[in-house]
Write a structure and sequence with these properties.
This protein is an alpha+beta fold and 71 residues long. It contains four helices and three strands, in the order αβαααββ.
Length: 71
């Protein structure tokens, strides 16, 4: 499935030492938080609707070099 392919690609990139942030930009039906089992209370919508530049504070560190920004 697309989820499995995307998840593996993200992990491979993170394992190479690159910092990877996965962003759930599907605002109508957000699923990334559910897939990874993280809260979806704050995320991309908060960044877009405020002047906040603190994306790092809203993302969740999932693995070394891999962060997730829910919708």
């Amino acid at each position: 499935t697309l989820k499995l392919v995307g998840e593996r690609a993200q992990r491979v990139l993170a394992q190479t030492g690159l910092r990877v942030t996965v962003v759930d930009a599907f605002l109508h039906r957000p699923t990334l938080a559910q897939w990874f089992g993280i809260p979806n209370h704050k995320g991309l919508t908060d960044v877009l609707t405020t002047q906040s530049r603190s994306v790092n504070l809203l993302s969740v560190d999932w693995e070394p070099n891999l962060s997730i920004l829910p919708s």
